[in-house]
Amino acid sequence: MTSPGSSGSTPPRHIPSWTDLGPRVLSAAVLIAIIATGLYFGGYVFAGLAAIVFGITYREWEQMVTLQPLAPFGMVLIALLALAAIVFPFYGPIGTLAVMVVAAIVSVFGGRAAAPWRAFGLLFFGALLIAVLAMRGTDPAGITAGWYLGIVIALNDTGAYFVGRVIGGEKLAPMISPAKTRSGAIGGWVIGMAAGTIYWVLFVHSPWWIGLLFSAVLGLVGQAGDLTESAIKRVFRVKDSGDIIPGHGGFMDRLDSVSFGVLFLFAVGALHGGIGNVAGGFLNW
């Protein structure tokens, strides 16, 4: 019989923890309902929702890169970011880009140490605003594209959560994000890819293999976005960008995967269908 201290002893059994499952499910349901409403109405409603979401997200970024509570100067930058979203229905991408360039210039006067991070954050969030609002556009195809993106990313994240908790195993990038496992990354990618392909076959009138390809790429770029945000948080030694969403952390923690995904969708759609037909350019082949 093998002694407990010998090399042949049985390794401790991996027991997953589900203490955060309830808050995560409830928070996800509320977020889905809000985003679905914005997608349905589009136009000023969706732009207003984007102004709120990105304003909250930049607040988290501002506090992270300054390592200080939100100051009046940060509130000015948040207001400019919100304005950039609101002007989109009136002036399109040019109007949003113009406001964000002004915001990036203003950010330079808020302190030398944080200026590069502020300017980068504003320009990046500005690019995301343009991508998100142009994807929705004014055509019903924007709703289809938005749901497709959300399903691929959400099922990728959810699949990674469950597979990683159940199987465990070797860490994916322990120096960047200690909680993520390779099993979770692979499992989430497969689940998100399958869910996206099924949605594509049911609701998109283009070859199934294009949906499979896009779902696979979106899963990978979504995970890249997640790891990128984790790496930035490591620089500033913060665990979560915020605590506004129970079980999830901050808005930045929820938008990291979506960020890279919507930029990919925007790039493909704009190149194929033009800046005024992003959703149609992405979906119709």
Could you please describe the fold and organization of this structure?
- The chain is mainly α and 285 residues long.
- The protein folds into two domains: 43-136, no CATH class; 139-285, no CATH class.
- 73% of the residues lie in helices and 3% in strands.
- The protein is built from ten helices and two strands.
- The protein has a two-stranded antiparallel sheet with strand order 1-2.
- Helix 6 (141-167) runs antiparallel to helix 7 (182-203).
- The radius of gyration is 20 Å and the shape is globular.
- This is Phosphatidate cytidylyltransferase.
Any chance you could write out the topology, listing elements then pairs?
Blueprint: H1 21-41, H2 43-66, H3 72-86, H4 88-107, H5 115-136, H6 141-167, E1 171-173, E2 177-181, H7 182-203, H8 208-236, H9 251-273, H10 278-283
Antiparallel strand pairs: 1-2
Helix pairs in contact: 1-2, 2-3, 2-5, 3-4, 3-5, 4-5, 5-9, 6-7, 6-8, 6-9, 7-8, 8-9
Pfam family, one: CTP_transf_1
Transmembrane segments: 25-58, 70-88, 94-110, 117-135, 141-163, 184-202, 260-283
Pathway: Phospholipid metabolism; CDP-diacylglycerol biosynthesis; CDP-diacylglycerol from sn-glycerol 3-phosphate: step 3/3; Lipid metabolism
- Number of separate helices: 10
Count of domains: 2
Q: Radius of gyration from the CA trace? A: 20 Å
Beta-strand share of residues: under 5%
Query: Which residues form runs of ≥5 with pLDDT under 50?
Result: none
Q: Tell me roughly what share of residues is in helical segments.
A: over 70%
What are the secondary-structure elements, in order, as H or E?
HHHHHHEEHHHH
Q: How far do the termini sit from each other?
A: 65 Å
Strand runs, count: 2
Mean pLDDT: 87
Strand order of the largest sheet: 1-2
What is the structural class? Answer: mainly alpha
Pathway: Phospholipid metabolism; CDP-diacylglycerol biosynthesis; CDP-diacylglycerol from sn-glycerol 3-phosphate: step 3/3; Lipid metabolism
Catalytic activity: a 1,2-diacyl-sn-glycero-3-phosphate + CTP + H(+) = a CDP-1,2-diacyl-sn-glycerol + diphosphate
GO biological process, one term: CDP-diacylglycerol biosynthetic process
Enzyme class: transferase
